[in-house]
Amino acid sequence: EKKFFLTANAKTRAKRRLLQQNDQNLSLEDIQKDLERRDQYDSSREISPLMKAEGAIEINTSNMNIDEVLQQLISIIEK
Questions:
Q1: Is the pTM of this model over 0.85?
Q2: 30 — phi, psi (to 5°)?
Q3: DSSP states along 25-73
């Protein structure tokens, strides 16, 4: 059994979010600031903070597309 914790830097995540958005009024900078604010809140809240589970394999997906992420996950599982 494997556990994974996927990460990406805020700028990359903002670009990905922008591509998914239907709201054309949001800028890349606005989305990135919102993600950073949410990350800070999620990782520091008292109840159920966002954190990597014990024993989880952390994978930074900042420079990967979805197919590359999937291939890396499969590769790790098959080992």
A1: no
A2: -65, -45
A3: T--HHHHHHHHHHHHHHHHH-SSS---PPTTPEEEE-TT--HHHHHHHH
